[in-house]
């Protein structure tokens, strides 16, 4: 398989898993973008930034093994259901072990719910045992969860979420990562919060509340739908501002299927490819081929 296809397959797997939950649209992209901003703020090298961004996009891949009834539950989880949710980092690691590029993301995916105080999961690691990628994703994942809308609450403001990160620094979150996260230019953070792509704010279903999938490349009049209530919408763009207009129709079975934003995935993969290929010997060892073509 060509190198570009390998990258696309990783991004696609994560995007389709995310699409199963109508309330978390764009979460993978936001965590990846925020994680790369932290890596830049920490002055990490280019390849490390790429790796952390890729791991951020893939961190919830293991939710493929969580039943829809639990993943999409709007009420409080039972103890038994929470134990099921807690399996997703280990499932992600199992999936990534069998992908030629899986080693790039496995550390971040497996340990992003570990905590410096040892009270995290799945392995109860202490701060010294938690990989840097996971420490960064832990912070950005929590931040995005706090600032995103859910069926039972609206997302909180950026300032409040930053305060909570600082209050839980050293216990739930790595203090060095929190410090650098809070140092990121606020405009850069605001450009990511409640977006699913660059310059693409999330759209909310006016009927029932979940996120409606709108891709950056969509144009005036293009159709989309809410995968929760099945309502169909057309996209309106007025003076650069996007909104949804109900068509009065019902989504087709094809529209309701979880799908990936292939244009976004293609952009992310092309962006990552030159960084992976900087060291050809490393690349050949990683994918097990002498083919350096994309």
Automatic annotation (TrEMBL):
Question: Which Pfam families does the protein's record reference?
Answer: HD_5 (PF13487)
What region holds the HD-GYP domain?
2-197
Q: Which GO terms describe its molecular function?
A: phosphoric diester hydrolase activity
User: Any idea what this protein is called?
Assistant: HD-GYP domain-containing protein
InterPro entries for this protein: HD/PDEase_dom, HD_GYP_dom
* UniProt superkingdom: Bacteria
Organism whose genome encodes this protein: Shewanella atlantica
């Amino acid at each position: 398989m060509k190198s570009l296809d390998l990258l696309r397959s990783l991004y696609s797997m994560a995007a389709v898993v995310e699409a199963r939950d109508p309330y978390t649209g764009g979460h993978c992209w936001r965590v990846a973008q925020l994680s790369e901003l932290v890596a830049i703020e920490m002055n990490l090298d280019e390849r490390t930034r790429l790796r952390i961004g890729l791991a951020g996009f893939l961190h919830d891949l293991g939710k493929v093994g969580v039943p829809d009834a639990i993943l999409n539950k709007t009420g409080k989880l039972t103890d038994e259901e929470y134990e099921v949710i807690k399996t997703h980092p280990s499932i992600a690691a199992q999936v990534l072990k069998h992908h030629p590029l899986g080693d790039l993301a496995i550390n971040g995916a497996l340990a992003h719910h570990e905590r410096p105080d040892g009270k995290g999961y799945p392995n109860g690691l202490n701060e010294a045992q938690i990989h840097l990628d996971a420490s960064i994703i832990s912070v950005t994942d929590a931040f995005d969860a706090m600032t995103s809308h859910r069926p039972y609450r609206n997302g909180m403001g950026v300032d409040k979420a930053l305060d909570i990160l600082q209050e839980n620094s050293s216990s739930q979150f790595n203090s060095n990562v929190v410090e650098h996260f809070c140092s990121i230019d606020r405009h850069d953070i605001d450009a990511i919060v409640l977006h699913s792509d660059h310059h693409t704010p999330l759209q909310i279903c006016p009927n029932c509340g979940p996120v409606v999938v709108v891709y950056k490349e969509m144009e005036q009049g293009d159709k989309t739908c809410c995968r929760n209530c099945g309502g169909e919408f057309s996209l309106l763009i007025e003076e650069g501002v996007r909104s949804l207009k109900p068509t009065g129709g019902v989504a087709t079975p094809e529209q309701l299927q979880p799908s990936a934003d292939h244009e976004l995935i293609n952009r992310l993969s092309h962006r990552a490819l030159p960084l992976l290929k900087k060291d050809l010997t490393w690349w050949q060892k990683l994918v097990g081929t002498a083919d350096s073509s994309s």
